[in-house]
Write a structure and sequence with these properties.
- With 237 residues, this protein is an alpha+beta fold.
- 46% of the residues lie in helices and 18% in strands.
- The protein is built from ten helices and six strands.
- Strand 5 and strand 6 form a beta hairpin.
- The longest helix has 22 residues.
- It is elongated and about 65 Å long.
Length: 237
């Protein structure tokens, strides 16, 4: 049975954190000669590079959300091609060109998947990232919240707040669980809905939603919503 790897593209500053965050039998990120690859048990039952890529894109979307939640400065990663490794070690590389939706394939010599400096990696304790990814697979509210959190706009942050609020039974539950204070939530919701405060970035285009006396900055909003989501996910553990 062939082994599938999906190359990850992004800033090296972000990529180098992934092997320590994903290191389970289910999902692993490995580094090889300066490149980073996603390896997953979910790929084992798939029979083509197209299927692997489609599954990986969905996984990477969730991964972007959970890593942004774990590391606020994370900029995100994307799929950069699929590699099939035959049992004898021979590799086939598939590179997708988005502009023309074409597929190119080439065959390379035998290679062994190892760390670039040939030293064994000591697996750190499992991170929250892996548990959040597993939770997002079975809990649609979590998957949706992580999807919108990654976008980091006023509208997307408000959507995350709405998703959590609906899931737990309203704003009172959020406050009751200690995830946010009433005054802070009020500033957030008022700012998010106010065209006077945010212009075109607001949830509404009308002027009937007045801005608070102290409008909230987007950085403060992200910190607030991140704290709510972290508390929410912790409650589901």
């Amino acid at each position: 049975m062939p082994e599938w790897l999906v190359r990850l593209e992004g800033d090296n500053f972000d990529l180098e954190d992934l092997p320590s965050l994903l290191c389970s039998a289910e999902n692993t990120v490995i580094e090889e000669d300066g490149s980073y690859y996603l390896k997953s048990s979910q790929f084992k039952s798939l029979g083509s590079a197209d299927e692997v890529r489609e599954r990986a894109i969905d996984m990477i979307e969730k991964l972007n959300g959970v890593v942004t939640l774990h590391i606020p400065s994370f900029r995100g990663i994307s799929e950069g091609g699929v590699t099939m490794i035959e049992e004898g070690g021979r590799r086939h590389h598939y590179v997708y060109l988005e502009s023309s939706i074409t597929l190119r394939s080439k065959v390379s010599a035998n290679l062994t998947v190892t760390k670039s400096d040939d030293t064994p990696q000591t697996a750190p304790p499992p991170s929250n990232v892996e548990s959040w990814i597993r939770l997002a697979k079975t809990d649609k509210a979590v998957a949706d919240a992580l999807h919108f959190f990654r976008e980091n706009t006023w509208i997307s942050l408000y959507k995350v707040y709405e998703i959590v609020s609906e899931d737990v039974g309203g704003q009172q539950a959020i406050m009751g669980n200690g995830w946010a204070a009433k005054q802070t939530l009020g500033r957030f919701t008022q700012t998010a809905q106010s065209k006077a405060a945010l212009g075109d970035s607001a949830r509404h285009a009308t002027h009937r939603f007045k801005q608070p006396s102290q409008p909230m900055a987007i950085e403060e909003a992200q910190t607030l919503v991140r704290g709510i989501v972290l508390g929410w996910l912790s409650s589901k553990a």
